[in-house]
Design brief:
Layout lengths: L8 H5 L20 H6 L3 H7 L22 H24 L4 H9 L7 H7 L6 H10 L2 H12 L1 H22 L9 H6 L5 H4 L1 H11 L2 H6 L6 H15 L5 H12 L4 H9 L6 H23 L3 E11 L16 E11 L10 H9 L8 H5 L3 H22 L29 E3 L10 H15 L4 H4 L4 E5 L1 H13 L13 E5 L1 H16 L9 H8 L11 H25 L5 H6 L4 H14 L55
Parallel strand pairs: 4-5
Antiparallel strand pairs: 1-2, 2-3
Helix pairs in contact: 12-14, 15-16, 15-17, 20-26, 20-28, 21-23
Length: 657
């Protein structure tokens, strides 16, 4: 075959894109109403999309009857008919040497007013034709590359920047503050994590895309860029407007509270994550004023007052003012906290009835049998809590059990008089005072500074209501001593009778741990004594009379858990099985409770009372009769007799320790 002649570039440019029919403009179907469609914008386009055209409509004034819903074959036929018309139009454009896209560019050119109706219709909010065109371009690889090139250009970058600009203006208006004075305790308490995706979805999408790869976005479930992107948005807001300082102030307060240096806060401020150091100090001053007002409001009602000493360490570079006035490296003072009392009534807190009962020699007070010995319901609750503790030791410390397999309600502690859901005790710290509470005189001066100066209360007003004060033993001792010194003063406040001291739970636990150590310390020769256990566990720092509480507590818990776990193993031996075999049998929660009850009764209960209730009885006459019940084997070797120590079996007051 003869080789065809290669077309020139000019001929290729104007070659029809689609093989079409005749190129006669007047005789082409569907072209009769082109001028009318041009005047009507995209009306003709909408008609063509519906499969109709003016050339195919009857030239009558009768209203057309509604046509039935087109079927799939009719839709395809309409599309094919429209495609044929497009081919004819393209053939016409090729005949007059006009590129279709040049035609579109001319129609969208704003310099030609005669074509304004076309782009006006195209740019309406209800018209989606431009979106369809852009989606079609982005749907192809080559088209997407063209769009990327355009977006990287000056016009595309300006369009993207205008979107970000509008979104950031909305965020600035929402996060603008007048100053750090607006950040009060209510602002911090009610603050919610901002959702920038609601007001700046485009900007947040760009940040998320930049912060992670497409692979990590689809598969990485442990690491998400949400926090990082939110922090970047906060930085940009603060950079855009110095009034968007909510996050910066909060983060600066966090840095100050965690002991960050001034240089660190200033460096973070330069990065846009925090306000400057001086603004942090100003915010602290405003917050202190707000907290003082809240404390004054709480202190005017029924409340409790607790306080303790505080030591503030300063820098090693202490200012030199002479021997007498040079500040110390450690500054001591007193920190007080006001607590609101839930469910308290003025009748409950009236001071005079409390004082009358305290001074009445005939007042019976507490009865051991009625007030201290638990009733059956309380005893069952106590035993339930003990059994849960015993079961938790087994599930947590035994490798044969998996604690996640046991999630029954009966294996959890039962709450006793629980607070409402979400309840939190309201407390209000007050300013630190430089008056130290280490002495009786210091306590008396601190009381006056707090109530008469800080809380702005009158002594006569305070004299009618009791103020519970839960403190450490030293502070309570100073309060009692102050009451003795001021016994003949003017009113109940000046006599300090308004303060009703109570021991703090921490000091109660501290004294209990020291009492356990004092009673059961024993000697190294006594197997099972605490000294014997300390030697086995290599606890060398517990030989003092009052060692560190946390170290002692951790050691006592370790000993208890070991003894309980050994008791579980001994209990399984009674059933001719091992702890591993018992775990393999998958015991139910009820079975665990039953065995824990047996372990509690036979292994962990206090010794029987060595004395009977008969008065004036000797130790030999009150010896307990041997029990006929079968006792499990002991889990701890018997104590070696030591004549130098008191026999704990004869000490009724301390044997339960």
């Amino acid at each position: 075959m003869p080789k065809q002649k290669k077309k020139t570039a000019k001929e290729q440019t104007h070659e029809p894109l689609v093989q079409a029919g005749p190129t006669n403009l007047a005789g082409s179907p569907g072209m009769e109403g082109m001028d009318e469609r041009a005047a009507g914008g995209t009306t003709g386009i909408n008609e063509r999309e519906n499969g109709t055209d003016e050339a195919t409509c009857d030239d009558t004034d009768e209203p057309a009857s509604p046509s039935p819903e087109p079927t799939g074959s009719k839709k395809r036929a309409a599309k094919e008919a429209f495609a044929k018309k497009v081919s004819q139009v393209l053939s016409l454009l090729s005949g007059v040497r006009i590129n279709p896209f040049e035609l579109v560019s001319l129609l969208l050119d704003g310099d030609y007013n005669m074509y304004r109706s076309y782009h006006t219709e195209l740019y309406k909010d209800s018209n989606t034709r431009l979106f369809i065109i852009l989606d079609s371009i982005a749907g192809s690889k080559a088209g997407k590359n063209k769009l990327k090139t355009w977006l990287r250009g000056s016009v595309g970058t300006s369009v993207v920047g205008s979107i970000i600009h509008d979104e950031m203006d909305v965020l600035v208006s929402k996060h603008r503050l007048k100053g750090v004075a607006e950040i009060d305790p209510a602002y911090i308490e009610n603050r919610k994590t901002p959702t920038f995706a609601d007001n700046a979805p485009f900007t947040m999408e760009l940040l998320h895309t930049a912060a992670q790869t497409s692979r990590s976005a689809g598969k990485n479930t442990k690491k998400t860029p949400d926090i990082v992107c939110d922090a970047v948005m906060q930085q940009m807001l603060y950079q855009r407007s110095n009034r968007c300082l909510g996050f910066g102030t909060e983060f600066g307060l966090y840095l100050w509270a965690t002991g960050s240096a001034k240089a660190t806060i200033e460096a973070v401020h330069k990065c846009g994550l925090s306000v400057c150091y001086q603004s942090v100090l100003n915010s602290l001053e405003h917050l202190a004023s707000h907290c003082t007002q809240l404390a004054i409001s709480a202190g005017s009602g029924l409340h409790a007052f607790c306080y303790d000493n505080i030591n503030l360490s300063t820098s090693i570079h202490v200012e030199q003012r002479g021997l007498a006035s040079t500040p110390g490296k450690v500054t001591s003072g007193t920190l007080g906290i006001i607590y609101k009392l839930p469910n308290a009534t003025p009748e409950n807190m009236a001071l005079q009835p409390i004082l009358d009962r305290m001074r009445d020699p005939d007042y019976p007070g507490l009865n051991f049998a009625e007030d201290l010995i638990p009733n059956e319901e309380q005893y069952e609750s106590i035993c339930h809590q003990f059994r849960v503790h015993i079961i938790n030791i087994l599930l947590s410390r035994s490798q044969a059990f998996n604690k996640e397999d046991y999630d029954d309600e009966i294996l959890k502690h039962k709450p006793r008089r629980p607070h409402p859901p979400g309840y939190k005790t309201e407390f209000f710290p007050i300013r630190v005072s430089m008056k130290e509470e280490v002495s009786v005189h210091g306590n008396l001066m601190y009381h006056d500074e707090v109530y008469l100066t800080m809380l702005q209360r009158a002594a006569e007003e305070l004299s009618n209501t009791a103020i519970p004060s839960v403190n450490d033993q030293h502070t309570n001792s100073c309060i009692r001593s102050g009451q003795a010194l001021r016994a003949d003063d003017l009113n109940n406040y000046h006599r300090r009778l308004v303060f009703q001291p109570g021991m703090g739970p921490f000091h109660a636990a501290l004294n209990l741990a020291w009492a356990l150590l004092s009673i059961h310390r024993g000697t190294l020769a006594q197997k099972g004594s605490l000294t014997w256990w300390f030697a086995i566990l290599e606890k060398t720092r517990l030989s003092q009379q009052k060692p560190d509480y946390h170290t002692l507590y951790a050691t006592l818990i370790q000993i208890l858990e070991g003894v309980v776990l050994c008791a579980w193993a001994e209990l399984c031996k009674l059933d001719d099985t091992t702890l591993e075999e018992y775990a393999a049998s998958t015991p139910t929660a009820e079975d665990l409770h039953a065995k824990a009850g047996t372990l509690l009764a036979e292994y962990l209960m206090p010794m029987p009372l060595p004395y009977n209730s008969a008065p004036d009885s000797s130790d030999e006459e009150c010896a307990t009769a041997p029990s006929t019940a079968k006792a499990p084997p002991p889990t701890v070797p018997p104590i070696t007799p030591d004549e130098t120590e008191n026999d704990p079996s004869k000490d009724k007051a301390h044997q339960n320790l």
